[in-house]
Amino acid sequence: MRMSQSFDEIRVYAGIAERTGIHFERDAVRRSAGYCSNLPALVRKVRDTGDGTFYLPIDLWPAGVESVDLHKPWVVMSSH
User: Fold this and answer.
1) CA angle 10-29-56, nearest 5°?
2) Coil/strand/helix, residue 16
């Protein structure tokens, strides 16, 4: 028997991801456009679609972290 996996609801605004505290079972979110199977998938979807609501397996959120910046900072190079 396979146990159902739980997902965190993740809100992304201005490239910053935060958990809302709401949990869903996999069957409730797997057909959603915001379904992400892992953190790299979340980053890709945010880059493609922008801000919004996404769903990530509970055990994949970084431990002890309130929010995650999903945008890589630009590196400015000198033109010397």
Assistant:
1) 35
2) strand
